[in-house]
Amino acid sequence: MSDGPDAIAAAKAALRKQILARRDGLSAGARAAFSATISARVSALDGFQRARALLAYMSFGSEFDTGELIEQVLAQGKTLLLPRVERGTHRLSVHVVRDLTRELQAGAWGIREPRPDCARAQAGDADWILVPGLAFTARGERLGYGAGYYDRLIAQCVASGKKPALVAAAFSTQMVPSVPVTETDQCVDLVITEDAAYPC
Predict the structure, then answer these.
(1) In CATH terms, is domain 5-199 a member of 3.40.50.10840?
(2) Rounded Cα–Cα distance for residues 84 and 3 (Å)
(3) pTM listed for this prediction
């Protein structure tokens, strides 16, 4: 089988469809219970506790619910950074958010994101990043949603000379033996599920 760009893109698309169906197949109750367990595991991490500025994301659909974790960031007096999709440049801008009720609005694909007037920050300002994704391996390989936003964001951090901790929170059903990768795909340092931790 060819491993050219077209074949890799097709393999990624097929895996995305498979894992999304698997994740969507979890009941709302299971997702809520698993999300609570994952949030507790993530917030207990030394890296989370030590971090002063954390870049997270607002979950949507059948994703791990980031709400509880984000509330903990604010409650502990840490700086919360959230991404905003800049469709014109196909990049993420990073903003400081202090009030989830007043400073967020529906953005791309209906995902809540910072209002454009929220204070700007740089991805490199974060010393800990919660990275979304559809599928992960125990080696930290990640399959995103296909637009490459986080691959570019992480690459920016690396280029700036700063390497924040990259942590993914996902349901165990999203763990796979392997994912198709290219040289621009970024890996994470740790994957946390409701029943395991995968230091990568």
Answers:
(1) no
(2) 33
(3) 0.94
Could you tell me how many residues make up the chain?
200
Token pair 């999709």 is found at 85
Domain ranges of the chain: 5-199
Q: What tokens were used for 106?
A: 């529906």
- CA 59 – CA 42 distance, rounded (Å): 15
Among 137, 130, 166, 169, which Cα is nearest to 38's?
Answer: 169
CA distance 30 to 52: 31
State both tokens at 56.
């997270």
Q: What confidence tens digit (pLDDT) does each residue in 146-184 have?
A: 889 999 999 988 888 888 999 999 999 999 999 998 888
